[in-house]
Each structure stands twice: as C-alpha cells, then as structure tokens.
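User: Run a structure prediction on this.
Assistant: Running it now.
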Amino acid sequence: MKKKKIIKTTKKNKNIEKREKGNVSTEIGAKIDINELHEKLGHPEAEVTKLTGNYMKLKIKGKMENCENCAIGKMRQKYVQKGPKEN
C-alpha cells in the first residue's frame, strides 16, 4: 500500500497543502477545468469526475464537453452481412 505524499509549502504567508494522487498533482482549493480533470482521471463519467474533484477539494470550473476519446471507446463496428457462399 502506497503512502500518501503530502508536502506543506508556504506561499504568500498561507499554508497550502500540496498532494500527489497518481498523475494528478494539485493544491487544495486549486481551480481545474472539468474536461482536464476528466482526462487525467481516465475518462470517468461527468458525475464521477465531479465527485472525485470535490473529494480532492478542487474547485471545478467549466462545462463538461463531448470527449472524442470517450466517443471512440463507445463506438460499435458496423454490421456487414456476409455475401452468398461460393462453391
């Protein structure tokens, strides 16, 4: 089990806690675009992205847009009928 890495820094006389979660490195209260967070978290649905951002104490801004990578992942191959068998 990995230990959570917490680094305390001082910035303009304020203590800001900086955390590292996987590939998402953020400060508590940092503003992040919902589409950027969606991509960094591995493309979860909008509700999960918002809940995770709130859990990480981030200020989420923007509106969820259609994600091209998610659309590609949800595509299905077109059905093509097999032709008559040749003898």
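DSSP finds three helices and five strands in the chain.
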